[in-house]
Design a protein that fits this description.
By secondary structure, the protein is an alpha+beta fold. The chain has a single domain, classed as PPM-type phosphatase domain (Phosphatase 2c, domain 1, 4-Layer Sandwich). The chain contains eight helices and 17 strands. The protein is globular and about 55 Å long. The two termini are 23 Å apart.
C-alpha cells in the first residue's frame, strides 16, 4: 500500500483553527428568512452573503431536474507495462440538484474524462462551480483544460508543471472572457491523472479523490483519501487569508453558529466563500483565496488498490469516505457504482436539508478488480 506524497502547502493534519466565530461576537445572518427555514436551507452553499450581487433570492419553488450527463467508457489496454493503462474501466455522471429559492437553477458541476494516447494517460476532472455564473466558469474550464494540458510540452515529463501552467493559462483566459463575470463566481477543481502505476492528484478547493484499498485477508476495503479539502479553517490556509487581510468565520444564525467557516473581505461581509482555494472568484482572491493547486502523488498497486472515486462535495457532504467506498465495493461495475452513489447522495440531501447540491461522481476500477454483484453494503 502506497501513501500519497503531498506538495503545494504546509503539511499537517486537518484541525479547525480555534477562532472561526464572528469577531467580537458580531451577529452576521447571511440571509433573511423568507420562507420558513429558507435561511437554514442555504447554510451549506459555497457562497453566502447579504450582498445581492452574490446571490439573488427567488420565490420558493422546488423543481428537480432529471436530465443526467453520463459518460461511460471501458479501457481495453492490459496493464502489463509501465506505459499501459492500469484502469480497466471507468464511468462518470453529473446531476443537477435544486434550491427552493432558485427555480431556474443550473447544474454548476462539470466532469472531464479524457485519455491522451501519446502519454498513455487517463485524466479525470471534477469541478464544482458556485456563484451566479458558476456553471459558465466550470463549463469554460471543461472546454479548455484537456487540450491545453495535452498539448503542453512538459506533460510527458513533468505532470505537475504542466498542470500548474495549464490552470494558470486557462484561468487567465476565463478572467479575460467578457461574457463571464467572475467577481463572485468560481469553481473548485480536483484532477486525477493516471499514467502507468502512478496517480497524480491536483486539488483546488473541496472536491475530493478517495481510493478503495483491500484489507489483507478480508473482502472489505478501506477508504484512503488522497486529496485534502481546502477549507478556510485549515490552519495554514487561515493564516494566509488573514495575513493578506481577509477574515475567516462561520455565519451566525438566530440559533447560533452554524455552517462552515467562510472567507470575507476585511471591511465587508462578502463574498462568504466556504473554501480557501478556487478558480475565478476575483473578489475572494483579494482576501487571500488562491487558485494554486496542491499536488499529491501515489503509487498504484493493483494487488491492493481496488478503485478510485473522484467527486464534488455534493457526494461527500453527507457521506464519509468509508461509506462511499463500501457502497462502490458493493456494485458490479463503475456505472452502477456511480448511479448508486448519486441516488443515495440525493436521498441524503433531501433528508438532511431543504436544498440538494449538484453532484458529480466518477469511479474507476483498477487492474482486474471486480465489484460485488450482490449489491450488499
Amino acid at each position: 500500500m502506497s501513501k500519497p506524497t503531498r506538495r503545494g502547502s504546509t503539511t499537517g493534519s486537518y484541525q479547525p483553527a480555534p477562532n472561526v466565530q464572528t469577531p467580537k461576537e458580531r451577529h452576521h445572518k447571511a440571509v433573511r428568512d423568507q420562507a420558513g427555514s429558507l435561511a437554514q436551507a442555504r447554510r451549506r452553499l459555497s457562497v453566502v452573503s447579504d450582498n445581492e450581487l452574490v446571490e439573488g433570492v427567488a420565490e420558493v419553488q422546488i423543481e428537480e431536474d432529471t436530465k443526467l450527463e453520463v459518460q461511460v467508457q471501458k479501457v481495453q489496454s492490459e496493464p502489463q507495462e509501465e506505459t499501459a493503462f492500469i484502469i480497466s474501466q471507468y464511468a462518470g455522471m453529473s446531476k443537477k440538484g435544486y434550491a427552493p429559492y432558485n427555480p431556474r437553477k443550473k447544474n454548476q458541476d462539470s466532469l472531464v474524462m479524457a485519455e491522451d494516447p501519446d502519454t498513455q494517460s487517463l485524466v479525470l476532472v471534477v469541478m464544482d462551480g458556485h456563484g451566479e455564473n458558476g456553471d459558465l466558469v466550470s463549463r469554460f474550464l471543461k472546454a479548455t483544460i484537456p487540450d491545453t494540458l495535452f498539448s503542453h510540452e512538459l506533460f510527458a515529463t513533468d505532470i505537475e508543471k504542466a498542470v500548474e501552467d495549464t490552470l494558470e493559462v486557462c484561468e487567465a483566459r476565463l478572467l479575460a472572457d467578457p461574457g463571464i463575470d467572475c467577481e463572485f463566481s468560481g469553481t473548485t477543481l480536483v484532477m486525477g491523472i493516471i499514467r502507468g502505476n502512478t496517480l497524480t492528484v491536483a486539488n483546488v478547493g473541496d472536491s475530493r479523490l478517495t481510493m478503495g484499498v483491500r484489507q489483507e485477508g478480508s473482502d472489505k476495503l478501506n477508504a484512503e483519501p488522497v486529496s485534502l479539502d481546502h477549507k478556510p479553517d485549515l490552519p495554514s490556509e487561515k493564516e494566509r487569508i488573514e495575513r493578506i487581510g481577509g477574515r475567516v468565520f462561520a455565519v451566525k444564525y438566530d440559533d447560533g453558529i452554524d455552517g462552515p467557516a467562510r472567507v470575507w473581505l476585511a471591511d465587508m461581509d462578502i463574498p462568504g466563500l466556504a473554501m480557501s482555494r478556487s478558480l475565478g472568484d476575483t473578489v475572494a482572491h483579494s482576501a487571500g483565496v488562491i487558485s494554486s493547486p496542491e499536488f499529491f502523488t501515489r503509487r498504484i498497486d493493483p494487488a491492493s488498490d481496488a478503485f478510485l472515486v473522484i467527486a464534488s462535495d455534493g457526494l461527500w457532504e453527507f457521506m464519509s469516505d468509508q461509506e462511499v467506498v463500501d457502497i462502490a465495493n458493493a456494485c458490479s461495475e463503475p456505472r452502477i457504482a456511480v448511479d448508486t452513489l448519486i441516488q443515495l447522495s440525493t436521498e441524503r440531501w433531501m433528508k438532511e436539508e431543504q436544498v440538494v447540491d449538484d453532484t458529480t461522481v466518477a469511479v474507476a476500477w483498477i487492474g482486474d478488480y471486480v465489484g460485488d454483484s450482490s449489491g450488499k453494503v
